Amino acid sequence: MSGHKVKGSTTIFIIFATPAESEEDGRISRINMEVRAKKALGQHFLTDRSIAESIVAALRLPENGSDVIGGNDTAGEGTPDGKTTRFPSQVLEIGPGTGVLSQYLLQRPEADLKMIEIDTESVDYLHRHFPAAAGRVIPGDFLKLDLDRLFPGDFNVIGNFPYNISSQIFFRILDFRERIPQVVCMIQKEVAERIAEKPGSKTYGILSVFLQAWFDIEYLFTVGSGAFAPPPKVQSAVIRLTRNSRTNLGCDEALFRSIVKTSFGQRRKTLRNSLKPVIAAKASREGWDAGRLGEFTSEPVFDLRPERLGVEDFIALTEKLS
Ligand code: SAH
């Protein structure tokens, strides 16, 4: 593998085997492909095929094209919360790049795959090398994709996400949480830890609370930077999100979101300080005098910093401040 730097991109010659040929003939055939890895698009191409296979294998799909109930899945595992969850056959891959994951997804007959890729060079590459991808690649930006039009029903999401926009991708997934029962993705290890983290840890934050409210999160495995070309500066990790059984928060969701965001916006402050405006609004709605306000804010929960609060605690806090 060799490369040289040009402005904002690295030209890389990635040599890797096509799985079909290597598996069928028992010998490795090589594609010599030239890819300009564009930094701005978060392009780090996974070159380790066994990791790609493991990522695709982590996606639970209906066994013979018809949707099944989680727990009977091909991976032989139930959903983390033991609840029944339907896994649809529709799959959206975000950022297929040169198809290292797509090639295995296309081999799964249970998967009805669509791919969204912003990079035209990658789109051309996919069309050239994977005839089965015909009609399945959507050139464009996932963040602007009309998901309602693309998918009539529920769909799974998979991908080695562009790390620079992974938070935005998750917020979009949250917007469509009723239609996305499962996400398998590779992201920056730090972000994966943050998302999967329990309350109390330093990295626990806004995304942890929002995602944990609606999804069960499994940290599957860590991937070193050597598995990519060009290697990213950070380690990576694969996580799996499975929609939990929650249908509503039982509190005002807009206020819940605003409380989570506001409190983590000043995460070193106690809730009493960071949530002052929300508390003041409550006091004025209720017509409290200073004495009543003081009594309210002396409750022990307001001594805490936001990282101590789990989803249920934030729900209780939201109810208190409604
Ligand atoms: N799946 C490939 C590529 C991962 S790199 C692999 O594992 O090797 C991330 C990919 O996401 C790149 O192909 C990049 O072009 C694409 N991408 C970046 N921003 C995107 C966006 N907004 N919408 C869709 N694809 C995007």
Report on this structure.
The protein is α/β, with parallel strands linked by helices. The protein has two domains: 221 residues, Rossmann fold (3-Layer(aba) Sandwich), CATH 3.40.50; 69 residues, Helicase, Ruva Protein, domain 3, CATH 1.10.8. 34% of the residues lie in helices and 23% in strands. The protein has 13 helices and 14 strands. The strands form four sheets. It has a seven-stranded mixed sheet. It has a three-stranded antiparallel sheet with strand order 1-2-3. A two-stranded antiparallel ribbon has the order 4-13. Helix 6 runs parallel beside helix 8 and helix 9 packs across helix 13. The termini are far apart.
Strand content: 15-25%
Form type:
elongated
What's the number of extended β-strand segments? 14
Say which CATH homologous superfamily of the largest domain is assigned: Vaccinia Virus protein VP39
Largest sheet: 7 strands, mixed
Give the radius of gyration. 22 Å
Tally of discrete structural domains: 2
Uncertain residue ranges: 1-7, 15-32, 68-78, 81-85
> Which structural class matches the secondary elements?
alpha/beta
Q: Looking across the biggest beta sheet, what order are the strands in?
A: 9-8-7-10-11-14-12
Mean pLDDT across residues: 87
Count every helix, treating DSSP H or I runs of 4 or more residues as helices. Answer: 13
Helix content: 25-40%
Are any ligands bound, and if so which? S-adenosyl-L-homocysteine
From the 3D structure, determine the CATH topology of the largest domain: Rossmann fold
- The first-level CATH class name of the largest domain: Alpha Beta
- Span from first to last CA? 59 Å
Write down the secondary-structure element order: EEHEEHEEEHEHEHEHEHHEEEHHHHH
